UniProtKB/TrEMBL annotation:
InterPro entries xref list: Ald_DH/histidinol_DH, Ald_DH_C, Ald_DH_CS_CYS, Ald_DH_N, Aldehyde_DH_dom, Aldehyde_DH_Superfamily, Succ_semiAld_DH
Family annotation (NCBIfam families): SSADH
Domain Aldehyde dehydrogenase: residue ranges: 20-477
Stated name of the protein: NAD-dependent succinate-semialdehyde dehydrogenase
Family to which this protein belongs: Belongs to the aldehyde dehydrogenase family.
Entry keyword set: Oxidoreductase
Species annotation: Viridibacterium curvum
Amino acid sequence: MSTEATLALLGTQAFIDGRWQPGDSAFDVINPASRERLASVEQPSLAQAQAAIDAAERALPDWRDRPAHERSALLRRWFDLIIANQEALARLLTSEQGKPLAEARGEVRYGAAFVEWFAEEARRVEGDIIPSAGRDRRTLVLRQAVGVCAAITPWNFPVAMVTRKIAPALAAGCSIVLKPAEQTPLCALALARLALEAGIPAGVFNVLPADSARSVEIGRLLCASTVVRHLSFTGSTEVGRLLMAQCAPTVKRLAMELGGHAPFIVFNDADLEAALDGAMLAKYRNAGQTCVCANRFLIQAGLHDAFVRGLTERTARLITGAGYEPGVQVGPLIDDAAVAKVMRHIEDARQMGARIETGGKTSGTGFVQPTVLSGVTPDMLIAREETFGPVAAIMKFETVEEAIALANASESGLAAYFYSRDLGQVWQVAEKLEYGMIGINTAAISYETVPFGGIKQSGFGREGSRYGLEEYVSLKYLCMAGLPG
């Protein structure tokens, strides 16, 4: 993190009511590639966290009542500033999260696209007129802002996960309090700095950076607050369950994007090269640290051996290293706990009979070699748990029915992928897979224009697209009587 532009975006205090607020203690943000300290960030006290909620409550009436075109214009200005500062943001992102700089640049553009999209959608929060039940009355439905919202974002996409939640909330007329992941608060604070420069009013967007212990306390405060009407969370299913329980007493609206365990199915009739291209993207992007990352590769017997050879050859050529290094394709894992989990999955699979085709070892502090395992069986940890690392676990199947059963044998239902050129088979598999998003002959499925979210224990609610805006509006039905018949 060396450029002047990046340093100009750096924030190290909470952003509350349009001002940078010193905290009562501090925590370190660590570069996952070097394990060196990037910055010391001051975290707010619980009283300051409550002040952020209060600020959002004060800001709500004016922001909600502004004409939609004014909110749209401010969001558009925020988008323009993000684009103008995209290189600085990308470098900040690589520094605190670790992904290769090329991927970081892509994430910044992807994250900015949500701000642009919802700047446009702000003008389209429309109601309905319903045919009335009597001559003397008219019935209609309004869509109005939910109110004060809270968002808790993960570390793996520290720009895009922020904009994907904040932009629709602001477009709908809500104010919001954000608690970014403790590992990656710097991007969220940089986005808040640009929002302030764009003219988004004080109190409409607040950011509370915190370490793991304080994050739990702030999360509990947000859940218990009667002022906060909506909570959006992206993270593990375990934490999602906890937040749901904490929100139950206040009956909050919730949007939960939780854990994934994506199957990647290749049928005998698939285009092998296309499937291998998709496999590399779905598995190794962000070092396998994505919620829609392919975790289980289910390959039909006729293509199995060729797929294993092809994926092994491609994987062995991947370059691992710090995100700033030229040519690096796979960066570090976020912390030592992440490395330990990935290595535990690899060792469990090896002991239970899987073969390590390539990789399988750590590569310096924070790095795991991109790995391919063959001979994986459903009883192995890697076939039952989300790995969140650069490990491709390959299983062989014989029939379509077997593939569907293996794919659906998970509590998760976020994303799935499959490759086939048989149109009838495509429809059969697409309709029977129990997942909220399915890539058919592609691994690129996420855009600002489409609904992102899962089913089963991967959560509920959608982000992006016009459906994402619905999360932040309430329906109000009006029945007007006493009119001329």
